[in-house]
Amino acid sequence: MRIRTIAAGFAFVSVLSVGGLAISGIWSKDPIPPGLAAATTWSPPQLPLPTSIETETPQVAQTRVEPAIPLQSMPRLEVASADTLLPTIEPPLSNWSRDIATGETLDTVLEEAGLSATDRAEVALALGAEYDLRRLRPGHSVTVVSTMDGSPRSVALSVEDGVRIEAIFGEELATQVVTPAPDFITSAGEAGIDSSLFAALGEAEMPARFAVDLAQMLGGIVDFRREVTGGETLRLLWREARVGEDRIGQPELTFASLEIGGALYEVVWPVSGSDRATIYVNGTVLRVFAQPVEGARLSSVFGRRTHPVYGNVRMHTGVDFATASGTPVQATAPGRISFIGWRGGYGRVVEIAHGSDTMTRYAHLSAVPEGLAQGQRVAAGDVIGRVGATGTATGPNLHYEVLVDGRPTDPLSDDRLAEAAESEADDTAALLRLVEARALLNENLGSDIAETTTERL
């Protein structure tokens, strides 16, 4: 009962409170003053539109009025692609090189360099087309240039005389032969002979092979074993081909002077444009030797020797001149062509008859001139073939023989051909060559050779 009385009291109070708030709200709302009401309805007056003001603009005097340039369509600029502007970057390369050792083959060396069997076979075919790989020997070298992943770029084979054969890898394997252009150096030397020519040259530090050249020219005139007793003086003039510090090929004698028994023997070897070597005694022409190959090196003389191919001792029936393949071969004396063709180990041969008893043979030829025929007459110096390696030969050379009544004789001592060649020689020109050779020897030695006067000078 008490609880109901309290709840009724709270309800009554709440009604009274709401009603009081409503009444106070109505009573407290006063009217708005007129000035304040007018202010709430005010807005700013509309601004008038701007009027244009005319002013005088100063004019700039113009002395020349250029015509209007007509507009033309400009050509479209071509922008190069980025890949054409950037340089090609070559991959880094590695070089591998070493000399060929005794008993090694090219394939062995290339395998060590890392080339595959296919690449090795291709390189061997390419290099073999320019050089006989059977002639490889210690001292030749192989250089392989490859990328870092082992792909070969080039293989170079360096052989004698500074020649380099290169196989270059590309879309196709290409081969090139690089032959250096040598410088020719003239040298001179003087030696006293005590026992032999070989010993004298060795002591004087001159090439010992010059003893063979002297034997070639003077062997049929001077008996070196009997007439050389010691105390003789030998003076030589020669030239060498060099590329940098390396000597190319063999040195070549150009002049020799040898005093024996009170006589002065001199030999002038042929120079460019001359095909004859001349021997003088005391300033007088003794004999003329027409060389079959100009400027060639005498590589083997007449007589018994160890055969370079078969290895046994055999009679060498001629003399050999080593020189480049294709070098012209000249007739050493006037005669008639008696044979052109092949003769076993001689290979391609040309034979010339000089009278009824003497014949010269030129062997291992690579070619003969077109039109050269059996029965045709030739003069000394006429080209009758080209140096080659046909038949049994270890490399390009000319095998030259002289046969008298069918028997081989030493081409360097037989007088028949020398007399035939001398008949065509110009003695005045030969004597002038001797004077020039003496002067050049004196210039290089810094000494004087006793001049031998002759009535014909």
UniProtKB/TrEMBL annotation:
MF-aspect GO terms: metal ion binding; metalloendopeptidase activity
Pfam families: Peptidase_M23 (PF01551)
Residue ranges occupied by any M23ase beta-sheet core domain in the UniProt entry: 314-411
Keywords for this protein: Hydrolase, Metal-binding, Metalloprotease, Protease, Zinc
Coiled-coil regions listed: none
InterPro entries assigned to the protein according to its UniProt record, in alphabetical order: Cell_wall_metabolism_enzyme (IPR050570), Dup_hybrid_motif (IPR011055), M23ase_b-sheet_dom (IPR016047)
EC number: 3.4.24.75
Keyword Chaperone: no
Leading EC class: hydrolase
This protein's record includes keyword Metal-binding: yes
Cofactor(s) listed: Zn(2+)
GO BP: proteolysis
Record-linked PANTHER family: CELL DIVISION PROTEIN YTFB (PTHR21666:SF288), PEPTIDASE-RELATED (PTHR21666)
Protein name: Glycyl-glycine endopeptidase ALE-1
